[in-house]
Amino acid sequence: MKTTHQRTVRIGLLGFGTVGQGVWKHIERNRRALELRLGASLEIVRIAVRDSGRKREVEVPSGIITTDTIAVAEDPSLDIVCELMGGTREALDLTERVLRRGKIVVTANKALICEHGDRLFTLARQAGGHYFYEASVAGGIPVIKTLREALVANRFSRIYGILNGTSNYILTRMEKEGLEFSTTLADARALGYVEADEALDLDGIDAAHKAVILAFLAHGRWVSLDDIIVEGIRDVTAEDILSARNLGYRIKLLAIISRDFQNERLVVRVHPALLPSNGIIAGVDGVYNGVSITGDVVGTTVLIGRGAGQDATSSSVISDIADAVFMLQGAPAPVISEEDDGVYRELAEGLSLGGPEDIKAQYYLRLHVADKPGVLAKVAGVLADFAVSIATVDQRAHLLEGTASLILTTHETDEKAMEQALGSLAAMSDLLQDKPVRFRVFDPGEG
Ligand code: NAP
Ligand code: HSE
Prior knowledge:
Layout: E1 7-14, H1 18-29, H2 31-38, E2 40-48, E3 65-66, H3 69-73, E4 80-83, H4 90-100, E5 104-107, H5 110-127, E6 130-132, H6 143-150, E7 156-162, H7 165-177, H8 181-190, H9 199-202, H10 205-219, E8 229-230, H11 238-246, E9 249-260, E10 265-276, E11 288-295, E12 299-306, H12 310-328, H13 338-341, H14 343-347, E13 352-353, E14 360-370, H15 375-385, E15 390-397, E16 403-410, E17 413-414, H16 415-426, E18 437-441
Parallel strand pairs: 1-2, 1-4, 2-3, 4-5, 5-6, 8-10, 10-13, 10-18
Antiparallel strand pairs: 7-9, 7-11, 9-10, 11-12, 14-16, 14-17, 14-18, 15-16
Helix pairs in contact: 1-12, 4-5, 5-10, 7-8, 15-16
The protein binds NADP nicotinamide-adenine-dinucleotide phosphate and L-homoserine.
Residues 15-20, 48-51, 54, 69, 84-87, 90, 108-109, 135, 139, 308-309, 313 line the site of NADP nicotinamide-adenine-dinucleotide phosphate.
């Protein structure tokens, strides 16, 4: 029920696909509770799409759908515009149009923030509006708010976790059902889990976009994907998953953001990793995401929830709409830009970006070799040349006659030494049937 003094907040949507329609549906479904909590009423008054003739899963009043995205972005009567269309070209232009007018944008677009967050946050602050982005990382998990508000007392030495639901779905099914990557990928495509640009999910790019956002939030520094390790799950085979399991590990696509406060080095990386099977993040399956946050005051906090999909993502978008409504009613906006107040920039003062030289890990190696005398000794010799010490070896016959799979794990080794050893192994073309594959073992430091 609307009271006479209650403000009506006018909302425009750019995009009315999976997430846009979810936002509509859930505002309608929980309208009364939501409006009581917010002390304002919400009205979605304009929606821009690409194809206005497309059948939608929710019914909206006639006339509010348009293909004129600019008209929505520049509509002076709107208080909040939700950019739920994706992409980085038109979405950038439209977001800038809204922010320049001092309005509030709510987004789920991690690629756009990762590429242009710096200037968009600055623009929002300078023009007196705001840019909210809870839905951009880990779907329905409130990780942005947790870092920005609930855990504000902390400095974060490590944040790591599973940030891409599609990869996690594929790896989980490969493990549970003994399936190969290609079979599981086909199922994931059929279920609509895989992004139109599959590389985003399969090559670790989507998880890296999210890691970059978390790194900025935690450490005040924007990191380029070109400067960090970004590896996806395409090289993971059913054999790797089984071998890892026999060694007491599960393979997950991890995003890791670690800061060494003594040497002021920040390392951001995304890659498949072997995690001890009994760990909390190792147990996060299917399209779920999980994020472990270690702060110097609170210790370790783990958040687990649905990382993608209409409902979970809408929950985060609506949470941002709620914050925007509070802001419109006089609550101060959260700090987001380093430009004006220096807060975020100072978090990164003296901080340099680390790379392979900062990584030490145990490694898992899979080599497909000719099954003949002396091969194992040669492999061991190459590893020894680079001071890589072998921890375990398992050799089993490969389907291809006269060849074998050699699965090795190493003791803790420098990433650089491992890369050099891999280069030398790869050059042994007379012994190797295909390129050597290595995954890092990740120590979650739990317990
Ligand atoms: P989607 O289902 O493909 O919907 C995109 C919507 O944007 C559609 O309504 C489309 O119009 C409209 N659109 C796209 N380009 C447009 C253009 N140039 N002009 C006008 N309209 C345009 O995408 P989604 O899954 O809802 O994702 C939206 C955003 O949320 C993306 O940034 C995505 O990365 C992010 N996100 C999604 C999820 C998820 O689980 N789906 C989770 C987290 C974050 P038509 O309908 O007419 O084609
Ligand atoms: N493709 C993304 C994922 C969607 O699988 O996690 C949610 O951001």
